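**Folding the chain**
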Amino acid sequence: MTSTEIRHELHAHPGISGDEHFAHDLIVRELAACHPDKVYTHVGGFGVIAVWGTELSHPAIAIRGDIDALPSGHRCGHDGHTAILLQTAQWLGKKKPAPGHTVILIFQPEEETGTGAQKILDSGILQQYNIQCIYGYHNLPGFPLGTVVLNLRTFAAASTGIIYRLKGRSTHASTPEKGINPGLATAEIIQAFNRLNNHNETDLDHFRQSTLICVQLGQEAFGTSAGQADIMFTLRAFSNTVMEQLLAEANSIAADIAAQHKLDVTHTLRDPFPATENRSDIVENIEQHCNCRYRHLLTPFRWSEDFAHYLQIFPGAMFGIGSGEKQPELHHPDYNFPDALIEPAAHILINLIKLKIEN
């Protein structure tokens, strides 16, 4: 199949995170004609890793593409990302890396839920290889078609959901003084967390954001004074160091306020993402060798990417590829990956591979 036909097949059979069996089987079939030296299947669920090169010790370059869909279908372009990576595999099948080099293509599941990258890493496969550089890419509506979008430092923010559970003691609503109602503490925590915000996006070392998500206090029982509350926030920062500091300060605030009101407090993290922190020298290599238009971001994206997990182990960088200035935003019901982007995007990846295996 052509790359466009591959994308259309994937688009017609979207597999949500954890159920990418159609994409998995299609990828494995298409790779057979590309003659990789090794193919790992069902990695971390329905992931596939293809390797050109036979020696584990040789310097390796790795490229990740994501393969899963949203419940509404392929409204994020992962069908296109898979087609791009398979076209890159087709090129590798015709021009194998010179002796002494290894190329690894990672078809990753479960990006939308933020769990796929860690599952790939937990398989231990990548750690067997001498990966000198790993690249991740994502199409970006709002930028000219085929334009490479770079950031020398952070590409996407760190984020985590956090739930604070305040436990007091419920009592009859007529005698609230006999119980411990977490209502006032809840209000104080919300106000204190609002003061955590620093919205200066140009200052990577100080930007941080606290967003109130949900409050559940007591229950609809008018004869009972509330005895428990859950307060949920999403925290964001542009560096992993600042994220650690923000979490520590948030937990300290919640603990202090709870103690003042004689409440017990526990906290649970949900969907934690590290910051996608690029290596600046690798970003400069992309700029010099992508052989196309490029632009640098003034600030990182506030959303998070699970590609960040790879960057905590291997040197690398994530970059964007413009999918059209008038393209609807990602996850929009009218979004559809443009077929015209497959070929130029694959050429960008091929040029990055050439940079590593020909120098």
User: Anything to note?
Assistant: The chain has a mean pLDDT of 96. The longest strand covers residues 130-140. The radius of gyration is 23 Å. The chain has two domains: 3-155+275-357, 158-273.
